[in-house]
Specification:
202 residues, mainly alpha, 2 domains, 10 helices, 74% helix, transcription, Homeodomain-like_sf, HTH-type_TetR-like_transc_reg, AcrR family transcriptional regulator, DNA-binding
Length: 202
C-alpha cells in the first residue's frame, strides 16, 4: 500500500467519523446558526480539518443533507417490490410517526424549507434542489411498489403523488401539534381507500 493510499483511507475514515459526529450535532441543534468553529469544537475537531475534509462549509452541508436523505430512504429496504402502495404507506407512516425520528424529521423540514427559498438555477447553494430531489426520490421508491403496468399511467402517477402529499401533510400536522392519533387517523383513512382501489383495479 502506498503512502497516498494510506492517507486517502485515513482521510476517508476521519471524514466518515466527523460526518457522523456533525450529523448528530445538527440533529440536536438544527441548521440555524450552524457555524464551523462551535461545531468543530463540539465534535472534537477544528474548522481547518472540516474544511480540508469537506472542501467548504457548503460541502459539509451537502454531505449532511445526503446523509439525512439516506436515513429516510432506508425505511423501505426490507419491503418486497410487490408490497403495494397501501402497505408501503403503512410502513412509512409508522416510521414517520415514531417519536425517535422527530429530530430527523424536523431537520428534513428545515432543509426542505430552505431549499424552497432558493432562486431557480442557483446551483451554487448547498440547499439547491434538495426539496425537488426528495420528491423525486420518494416518487421512484413508491413507483417500485406499484404494478408495472400502472407506474407510467396518469392514474398511477396521481396515486403516488397523492400518497406522498397525504403522508407529508400528516407529518407537518404531527410536528406542529404532536397529535399522532389525529394525523394517523387521516393517513389510515387514505390507505383504506388505496386498499379498496387495489382490490377493484383491473
Amino acid at each position: 500500500m502506498t503512502a497516498t493510499e494510506t492517507t486517502d483511507e485515513t482521510g476517508s475514515a476521519r471524514r466518515r467519523e466527523l460526518l457522523d459526529a456533525t450529523y448528530g450535532w445538527v440533529l440536536e441543534h438544527g441548521w440555524a446558526g450552524m457555524s464551523l468553529r462551535p461545531l468543530a469544537e463540539a465534535v472534537g475537531s477544528s474548522p481547518r480539518v472540516l474544511l480540508y475534509l469537506f472542501g467548504s462549509k457548503d460541502g459539509l452541508v451537502r454531505a449532511l443533507l445526503g446523509r439525512s436523505r439516506a436515513d429516510q430512504l432506508r425505511v423501505l429496504d426490507a419491503l418486497p417490490d410487490d408490497a403495494g402502495l397501501a402497505r408501503v404507506g403503512r410502513v412509512l407512516w409508522e416510521w414517520l410517526a415514531a417519536a425517535e425520528h422527530r429530530a430527523l424529521l424536523r431537520l428534513w423540514l428545515e432543509a426542505y424549507s430552505r431549499s424552497l427559498g432558493q432562486e431557480p438555477g442557483d446551483d451554487a447553494s448547498p440547499w439547491a434542489g434538495f426539496a425537488r430531489d426528495t420528491v423525486t426520490d420518494w416518487d421512484l421508491l413508491l413507483a417500485a411498489h406499484q404494478p408495472s403496468g400502472r407506474v407510467s399511467t396518469p392514474e398511477g402517477t396521481a396515486e403516488r403523488a397523492l400518497l406522498l402529499a397525504v403522508l407529508r401533510g400528516a407529518l407537518l400536522d404531527l410536528l406542529a401539534t404532536g397529535d399522532a392519533d389525529r394525523a394517523g387517523a387521516a393517513v389510515a383513512a387514505h390507505l383504506r381507500m388505496l386498499d379498496d382501489g387495489s382490490r377493484t383495479a383491473p
